[in-house]
Amino acid sequence: MADGQTFPVAHPDSVAQSPSGRTIIVIQPDDSYSVLDLLLMTELEVGNGQRA
């Protein structure tokens, strides 16, 4: 995000996109969630599928 925050996505099923495509919701394993404005996203880092 533009402010440096990160939001790990444990599984593709834990992300929902709004109909407009501008907003996404990232749901965490503890059922908390974050609503993100994609216009403020500056980078998307994709892992290699290996656990850290």
End-to-end distance = 22 Å
Shape type: globular
Mean pLDDT, to the nearest integer, reads 89
Poorly predicted segments: none
Q: Can you summarize the main beta sheet?
A: 3 strands, antiparallel
In what order do the strands lie side by side in the largest sheet? 1-2-3
The tally of beta strands, per DSSP, is 3
The run of helices and strands is EEE
Radius of gyration: 11 Å
Q: Provide a count of the helices.
A: 0
What structural class should be given to the helix and strand makeup? mainly beta
Which percent band covers the strand fraction? Answer: 25-35%
Portion of residues within helices: under 10%
Describe the structure.
The protein has no helices and 3 strands. The chain is mostly beta strands and 52 residues long. Strands 1-2-3 form a 3-stranded antiparallel β-sheet, with no helix packed on it. 0% of the residues are buried. The mean pLDDT is 89.
Q: How would you summarize this macromolecular structure in one to three sentences?
A:
The chain is mostly beta strands and 52 residues long. 0% of the residues lie in helices and 25% in strands.
